[in-house]
Amino acid sequence: MTPMRYVILVLAIIISLHFILSFSHEDYGRATSITRLKEQLKGSTGQKTYDSYPAPGVDYSSNSERANATFVLLARNSDLKGIVTSVKQNEDRFNKQYHYPYVFLNEEPFSDEFKNMILEITSSQVEFGLIPHDHWFQPDWIDEMKASDARKQMIKDQVIYGGSVPYRNMCRFNSGFFYRHELLAKYKYYWRIEPDVTFFCDLHYDPFKVMQDGNKVYGFTISLYEYPKTIPTLWGAVKEFIGNNSDLIAPGNAMSFISDDNGETYNNCHFWSNFEIGDLDFWRGDAYSKFFEFLDKKGGFYYERWGDAPVHSIGAALLAKKEQIHFFNDIGYRHNPFQHCPQGDSHHKGQCWCDPKENFDYEWYSCLKRYDAML
Length: 375
What we know:
13 strands; 13% strand; globular; signal; alpha-1,2-mannosyltransferase activity
């Protein structure tokens, strides 16, 4: 990279981070972890919970050519504009050919405005679900004084979302509860979509079938380093879990992606979970269930600021075989401030409109090279 390009890139990311920080700390339909460059430079009860809107006169569930899959979107009513942008692009780039259903989740009921707008832009089945109280809010057993002190310190340290309880609720929900929602019980695979993302390329194949036919459990487009101040004790807890549950660790796993010394320390690499295509049965399985419950009891989602990105990444890396983790190279994707832009023939075939030179894959703070080396 030329010195001038490096300077421009760093300045662009710093500006983007300031832009993100300008949003309310109560936002949760955003990225679950943003690397801080400064640090990296240093080395209810009887209530109806949802409404269902099947596409009129069409039973897509009988389509034998599709996988048993859905899109999952965690959003609030205030995210409508960003969600519409994301869904419309997904429809245009991919889903208008396949008509996979959508599941929207919120900790409060969706407004009629939100639901009507979504139904305007897709002919696929859409369901709107309410998140159970205990799956979202800070549990009673958390020591609030200890958690409050931690938030105050993170604010002083200028940790992104360091003072936000709703953000922590979101991270915990995505780590251990979204796949338990009743609306997802009938599905095998999911594709997570967030507000204000960009899909650059046309997809001429079905990523869900790639997962199904290849026995994949986790798919990603961007990987990077986590901000260490959000997870100071996470790896210690992971090592404790490994020591107590060695029988659950998969042979041929992806430990080399997340550790450079065979598990002694964590190198902070993770898959950026604002985009992920995954196997719901993997998260619902015995191994990951035990893994999440063990971590949850440590309280790190609230005493620190554990993100679902490192939790999912470590879980997939340890509990699945390395070849079950898939890089979707030809899905052009951006979640500010990072983007993956397919290169060469993939860019041409996808009729991608991103600039191939603006590609995060092998920048110095990307972890893709570790994924490549692992395989």
